[in-house]
Structures are given as C-alpha cells and as structure tokens.
Amino acid sequence: MYRNMNKDTDKNTRRGGVGGWFLAMARVFRREFSLVFSDLGIILFFFVLPLAYPVTYTLIYNPEIVTDLPVAVVDHSRTADSRALVQAASAAPSIQIYAQCADMAEAKELFASNKVFAIIEIPADYARKIGRGEQATVPMYFDVSLLLRYRALLSSVTDLQMKLTQEITGTRLETMGASALGIDGGLPVNSHNSFLGDPGQGFASFVMPGVFILILQQSMVLGICMIAGSSKERRRLNGGIDPRTINGVPASATIWGKTLCYMVLYLPSVLYVVKVLPEMFALPHSGAAVDYLLFLVPLMLGSAMFGQALSGLCTERESCFIVVVFTSIIFLFLSGLTWPRYAMNQFWIWLGNLVPATWGVEGFIRINSNAATLAETAHPFHMLWILAAGYFIVAWGVQSYVERYYRRNYAIAA
Question: Which sequence spans correspond to the domains of the chain?
C-alpha cells in the first residue's frame, strides 16, 4: 500500500506567481530524489550501469593492440626474393609465421581450424616480375570475424607493402644509375603516419570515449522511462492519481524539478567518465576539465529532456526496455563512431541529428582526444542546447497530455 504523498500539494504549492512556480519545482525535485533512491531498478540504471558498463566494455578491448597473430605462408616461388618477403612479414609485430605450407589446401585446413588467421600466397612468378621491373601481386586472405585481428593484420601488411616498395624502388633506381642524378635510394617522397587522438592505434582509445557518452545518455533515458512507467502503473491502481508524486503543479515545474534532480544525480557519473576512466585505462585525455564539464551540461540536460519526451511511450515499468534498449546499437551507428556520418544518406543524418548523444560524441571526442577547446566545438555545443530546448517543449506537451488524460478518464479535479 502506498502512502499518499499528496499532502505536500498544499496552498503554497498551488500559489501562483514566480515564487509558487519555484516552490513547486523544489517539491518535485525533492520528491524525485526520494523516488529514485526507493527503487532498486532505477538505482541500477542511474548509478550501477554508468559505473559498470564502461569498465566492462573497456576491459573487453584491452589490450588494445593484438600481436603475434599466426599466419600461414604458401610460397610457390621459393626464391631469395620470396624468402625476403616472408622474413619481412615475420618481423612485423602483429604477424607470427605459424607454418609454411606446401600448397593452399594445407593452408586452408589450418585456416578452417582457426590455427591461423591469415594466408599469404606468394605466386611462382613473384621474383621474375620483380626482376623485370613489373608489378608483382601477392594474394593475402584474412579472417574478418574479429575486427581487432583484421585491423592489426591489415595494418601490418600495408606497412610491409610500403617497406618492400621502397626497397625495390631504391634498388631499381640504383641499377639505372639514378644515384648520379642525386636520388639516393628509396622513394622520392616518403610518408609517415601520425594518428591524432589515438597514438597507440588502439581500438579502445578510438571507440570507448564515444561509447561513454552514449552510456550516459542511455542509462539516464532508461531510468526516466522506468520512473514514468512505474508512475502510470500506480495511477491505474489509484484511480488516476500517483500517490508518490507531487500533483497539481504546472507541467513546466514538474519537468524542471525532475531534470535538476537527474542532473545532480549524474554529476558523479560524469566526473567518473571524464576523469577516472581515462586515467584508469590510459585512454586519450587531452582536453581541459572546464571544457569537458561545460560541454556535458547541455548533453545531460538534453538527455533528461529526451527521456521525459520518450516517457509518454512507456505505459508500464518494463516498457523502457522495449522503447530504449534496442535503440542503443542504432544510436551507436548514427553517432558516426562505426560508420562515418558523411557516408550516410540524408534520412539517417537527419535522424542522428535528433539524438543528443550524436552531437555529444562528436564534441566530446574533439575535446577528449584532440584537445579542442569549447569554442572549437561550437557547432555540436549549440546543437545540444537546441535539442534540449526542443525536447523540453515535447516533454511539456507529453506531461500536459498525461495530466489531462487522467483527469478526463478518472474524473480527477484539476
């Protein structure tokens, strides 16, 4: 049996004017605090999920760089040039020559049994083509079932290709007497890779800062939707009145009271994400603390408004799982972390623009990984404020509709 909380809706709460509005908001703020800490499910979403999920996901991708991946070699050439290729491949940190097979059938058997994750097949005319100054082709076959392995192997093979190209080109230039022209071996223009924001080329350093932002948004939205679903269940059991919330206050005061409560509750999680986790796992952490915190204010504000706007879809406590959970993967793709936004069609770009985490991921990575200032992230920063304002209007409409619905269907006095 619920204890009726509507005694708090006294004449001070109903008092008009600015003072009455702020008093109503303060009462909603206080009651929402009590409601959150009396519900284990909401505590799990608001506190345990943003604390545990980032650690779990980061541990999955640690160590960030895989090394010594077993590779099979099929050498049809069996020449000094082909042996030099195998030796150069074995020197790569991500490649370990597991076996030199007599034919492709033997290599495929090792591949099928997961004893090797790639096959290098050197054709019989490899040395002959190099000697003639022609282009030689070396087929390579990769296991792409795990992105970390494929990325490491592809990167090593690309570096190997560049190294061999430079050596062969230098040898050809010397053979043609190019040294007399001042070309001292190697390529005329060399290249050097510099991975901004991810110097270790690790997958966790690349993707996890953005995932942290998505976890903050999704956990807050899940908790808010669970609160709304629980409230509607209590209303159906109590003649349209929720005895555990403040009734009879303006919809705007209700929304802002709840929003401020959620913002205060999430302050430890925000500090944990932007300060503790990067140092715990040695992730990129280049931005200024002031820029982090100022940028995350509209993100969390927009997430709170976004959750209250979606709460109208939650008619039961469990509805939050149907409404929110399945969107996590969708929002991850829309953010541009796993697929660039410029490669999406206009519909998906437009849909992604409506999600606070999309702009939050873009701006946070700029600050976190590339040491951008708040001024340099002005566009995503402004978009977050626009979304917060837009979702406030939607949440106000949802809250007003819910109150009118229960007054009309349960004959509750206004």
Answer: 6-61+202-410, 69-181
